[in-house]
Amino acid sequence: MSYVVTAPCFGCKYTDCVIVCPCECFHEGEQMLYIDPDQCIDCDACRIECPVEAIFHEDEVPEKWREFIALNREMSVKTPSITEKQTPLV
Ligand code: SF4
Ligand code: SF4
Q1: What is the pTM of this model?
Q2: In this structure, which of 2, 25, 30, 60 has its CB flanked by the most CB atoms within 10 Å?
């Protein structure tokens, strides 16, 4: 099981989520962040930090965003790890 970043993250990159993760799960794509499901320990810390509620437990991802479960797995191995908060893009 893992937590999953979904559509509301597009273009955000406040990255409040990143600094609370104890396992360095987050990876930075061009448009959004992804969680490496093999690193995530389901601690729930990131979900409550995200101001736009983009993060869900895998079992609670809304139906319309289910494809993000596979996308996080796929993209987290293709993108660099991010562990520090960044300045928002917008
Ligand atoms: S805080 Fe939320 S919207 Fe912002 S980068 Fe993290 S997951 Fe994405
Ligand atoms: S649930 Fe915990 S371990 Fe998983 S990505 Fe969020 S902060 Fe990291």
Answers
A1: 0.95
A2: 25
Task: Indicate whether residue 17 lines ligand 1 (CB < 6 A).
Answer: yes
CATH code of 46's domain: 3.30.70.20
Distance CA 38, CA 52 (A): 24
For residue 46, the ligand closest to its alpha carbon is 2
Ligand 2, atom 2, residue with closest C-alpha? 43
What's the pLDDT tens digit per position in 28-71? 999 999 999 999 999 999 999 999 999 999 999 999 999 999 99
The pair of structure tokens assigned to 88 is 């928002």
Rounded to the nearest angstrom, the gap between the alpha carbon of residue 53 and the centroid of all alpha carbons in its chain is 10
Decide if 87 is inside a domain: no
- Whose atoms come closest to the Cα of 37: which ligand? 2
Question: How many structural domains is the chain composed of?
Answer: 1
**Cβ-proximal residues to 78 (8 Å cutoff; 6+ apart), any chain:** none
* 66 falls within a domain: yes
pLDDT digits (tens, 9 = 90+) for 72-83: 999 999 999 999
Closest CA to ligand 1's atom 3:
9
